[in-house]
User: What shape does this take?
Amino acid sequence: MLYIVHTTGKCNLRCKYCGGSFPPQLVPWSPRYDPRLLKELVESDPDAILAFYGGEPLLNAPFVMWALDNIEARHYVIQTNGTLNHLLPPEYWRRFDTVLLSIDGVEWLTDKYRGHGVYRRVVSEARRLRRIGFTGDLIARMAVTEDSDIYRDVKHLLSLGPFSHVHWQLDVVWSDRWRSFPRWRDEIYLPGLERLASEWLDAMAHGEVWGIAPFKAVMSQILWGVYEGMPCGAGRDAVSILTDGRIVACPIAVSEEWALLGRLGEATPDDLRDRVPVGEPCTSCPYYRVCGGRCLYAYKERFWGDEGFREVCRATQGFIDLMLRAAPEVRRLLSGGIVKKENLYYPPFNNTVEVIP
Ligand code: SF4
Ligand code: SF4
Assistant: This one.
């Protein structure tokens, strides 16, 4: 099971997507529980993945170091804005399996949403992580808005060098409405994905698998089945532990009642599993096996209403159709030995990449 641990509710940036720190009365800025309870819960699960989250998790770097030193887990992950990496010594960085750095694409775009100078800091930190010997999966984690050009931004991040994967999430449903999501989807997003997918396949024909995380993960689901239901695991086998000791189904659902699963010290991993089911319209949707409902938070909250929910579904379905069309060619490349399963299969464990953007 995946345990996402908020080390703090505080953040040093004020990105336009989330506006910065959580109010401390909602997510206190340091853990208010006995950390031995966290150790007990995580170590009672032989397949535990421990992921650090915030706020900005490195604002509580001592807690991250304590957990890495004291909590046994199968895998370690951190999602950070990449501006405070110096707070963790190199030997700790080398212990992560996966590091996700937030960056949205080209420089002006990243800085418009995350703050002036953020792009340069993140890129230089990404390069530094490789220099200090981090050999794990380094993921550029994009938030995608109506200013994003998915083709331009994914290609740009892949070209930088240090990132092994690029992943994105659409900034929809929990954010304000876009000027026109349907227009952006039909004129920029889906055509951009089509162009990317075509180049991705061309590269694969030469045995090279570009690290476009949603492509690899959806293709893996089509070919082999990686997950069941919600791809991020929310409500099923991923939980978030807030700084006040509450355990919730999704890391951003910090005050929603449907998300509350229990409290640290009172719940076992089995109590937390399979707790928030997904129903209609997803369970009878023909795309459900791959989409899984996309995002439990969006499914539950529907800030854009049912019509807005369906508009996002059209983006998901267009993307899945693209991968379904590419699947026979990918199968051919696999059976011809041109592409190896181990290079395509993704994610190798739930590394917090939500699969469906
Ligand atoms: S495409 Fe929409 S309706 Fe279909 S499974 Fe995904 S979220 Fe649910
Ligand atoms: S995809 Fe949605 S439900 Fe899953 S972790 Fe992200 S916000 Fe929560």
